[in-house]
Fold:
Amino acid sequence: MSNVTTTLDQAASTATHSDMHPRHDQTFPELSHAEIDRLRRFGTRRHFHDGEYLFQTGRPGSGMYIVLSGHVAITQRDGLGHVTPVVEQGPGQFLAEVGQLSNRAALVDGHAEGEVETLLIPPEGLRALLIAEADLGERIMRALILRRVSLIRSGLGGPVLIGSPDLSALIRLQGFLDRNGYPYHLMDPAEPEAATLIDRHVERAEDLPLVVCPDGSVLKNPSEPALARQLGMIGAKPGRELYDVAIVGCGPAGLSTAVYAASEGLSVVVLDLRAFGGQAGASARIENYLGFPTGISGQALTARAFVQAQKFGAEMMIPLTVKNLDCSRAQGAFALDIGMDTRIRARAVVVASGARYRRLAIDNLQMFEGHGVWYWASQIEARLCAGNEVVLVGGGNSAGQAAVFLSAHVAKVLMMVRGDGLARTMSRYLIDRIEATSNIEVMTQTEVVGLEGSAQTGLERVRWRNNVSGKETTRDIRHVFLFVGADPSTAWLEGCGVQVDKSGFIVTGAAPADSDARDVHALESSVPGVFAVGDVRSGSVKRVGAAIGEGAQAVQALHRFLESVEKPSQA
Structure:
């Protein structure tokens, strides 16, 4: 999840606490005098005069405030000139949410009403508090997480998105914000305020959607990185000149590596080009992960790990694209080029960049991507195709999870696989679930061979072929979901010397022929100090549990490597 500061009491302005905060006492606990005394060593006293801001929307916060005396008014500002009174916070209450673990921009305003005395605990102090004061830290952490959840549910505190609900660019931005756990609000283009903004800013159809940020700035159909920078989701610059380890990829393997490495005292930076969670984060429900007998969504599981990594001090830089890796180790460090004339230096690198779903070999496929062709199935896509018939291509676990999820929203799921069944590629529990779901039809030895429609209207018809009979069928279907295998995300490693197999996955555990007889760790690549975990690694199991285990295992290898090389200078 992307990161902010401050409180989530917004719901008080629109609903009762019981409506919006079913766990209100856990979301907004009040600290006793004795508990506050235990926390004083982590912060400093700060005094604010009447009307003075403690924090402001869109600006990095200073940390978590504990109110010692006086009252702080929390207000929500939406960028359209609306300022909504939210709630007052008084003595014993603290002002923060998960964004304060990493000093991101605030989503709400907080100003003093009268004279206010606070205890300010900066982000590094907050992280130290959560670890040192285990019982109290647990209560605070739970509140920080619940507050972010409340913000997302209420749709308050983030940008306003203006555009037609079926606009592909709007769906793209919704998916980006959803996957990063960042709140936003949708506005119908027909609403008077929205229509006025469209008249003022939109010159051509490609300018939509409009995004109105809390600071009042208006973006025209922005890219994900541009939106993230404007919202303060990405830090202004790397927090260190030299990290112990840079992790590229924020799926289960990368998150596991980050949690274990940071918890053991290594300085860690994690980079991802889109969102935390990877492909697993898009899974509607994972039912075979240890410890969750009722199942858990991929986003819920990886969001917990995302917060956990920040708790231990891992620095998250999302969304950022790593353009290439310099393995020359000038001055004893690897260098990752992230554009904008910026390089991140690290003593070791863990490649957890995963794999991306393959595309079908259909000439006009790209025309319909985001406009009827989808590579994941979230609530956003489910709403778009509710009540309709859809095609889903693929026979792995991700395809099975998506089929089951979509079956609850659509009239029918036509699940097409090229093989003669699902047994070789899918877990038994998912096969059983699919067989028990009346509106999922599994079509074996079948593949999609044509898509029809236009750039303006989107996908309208789908043509498929049974590869046994050769019969082709065309049907009016406007939504196709593709889960057809994956290709490794390793192009950014070209020129670095990292050995890959014939499919492009990273080979680990084998020393190069021209190297000395050094002991190579099972997760180490052909370049000393570069490790690979998760789906990007050749021979990996391609399961969430295995990816998490590899992340934990990699930390042992990191320690051994870092101990064997001299620490370079910071310059």
In short: The chain has a mean pLDDT of 91. The first strand starts at residue 44 and ends at 48.
